What we know:
This protein is mainly beta. The protein has helices spanning 61-67, 125-128, 151-155, 199-204, 256-262, 272-275; strands at residues 5-6, 14-15, 21-25, 27-28, 34-40, 43-50, 58-60, 70-80, 83-97, 100-110, 121-123, 131-136, 141-146, 162-163, 174-179, 182-188, 196-197, 215-216, 220-221, 227-228, 231-240, 243-252, 268-270, 278-283, 288-293. The chain folds into 2 domains: 5-147, Acid Proteases (Cathepsin D, subunit A, domain 1), CATH 2.40.70; 159-293, Acid Proteases (Cathepsin D, subunit A, domain 1). The radius of gyration is 18 Å and the shape is globular. Mean pLDDT is 88; it is low at 1-19.
Amino acid sequence: MRFSRAFPLAGGAALGAFAAVAEVPVSRSVDGHDTIPVMIDGKGPFPFILDTGADGGAVYAWFAQQQGLRKTGRTGELTGQTGATPVALYELADVAVDGHRLRDVTVFRLPDRHDEGREAGILGNDFMDGVLVVFDFPCRTVALHDKPVDEDRIIGPGPDAVPAGRDEGSPLLPQPVTINGFTGPAVLDTGSRNSRLNSAFASAAGIDAKSAQFHDGEAVFGANSRAMVPRNGPLGHVGFAGVEIAGAEGQVIDLPMLEQDFGGKPAMLLGSDLLGGYRLLYDHQEHRIWIRPSRCQDRSRVR
């Protein structure tokens, strides 16, 4: 199961005092997700996914029980990739990553994963507002720069920022992605291990997921624990934010999330598989992203 989107939080989240820069290492969970160390109510650190594809925060059921987290007594509707379901809400007094924090946060309870992953939870866009976030995937670091910042120094030379759009009814940021000459919207989703196209996008890009080049992948479980099986295979030439990737691979799957948000039109999730060779700079509040070569290695072509 992969959490990708939550409806607006039931309860306020107030920004606390920030450090000028918070920088932490990225670790790889046994299920392939990238995690960062997070302090919850002064305890930890615990492994959380920093997810541009999530509106707000969530904790897995095992972690909520282990830590004795306090329920609000209310429920909220949580929408994952495979559909929506009502879940319990918990209150966290303090969520901190190396000094960057949110206080008095309401988070969703996620069902435990269907694989071996033992992530404690997810931090979403509410945690990333007010900062310029730098995901340097090859360097295995994430930095959160308190705004205002010296953008020229942090971002470095390269293409201009991509002015991302809005996913209707949520704070998620779709951006244009071109596959084999066809351009459609893609939700930037650092919490997804795989990039996922719906059938409409695949068809428009000349991709036949029923061909022998594709095979059934590992089942995707959403917040409602509904299993959906993607088709894995070659996507061809992919371009986004000045990046050009030849011979890219990904998944074709008609996720209810994309159906709900884009009405059956071509759409996709741009996951960490295609982002993993680069440095991603993310300003959620200003709806801007940049892609740059990693400071550790350049496995990419950024024009």
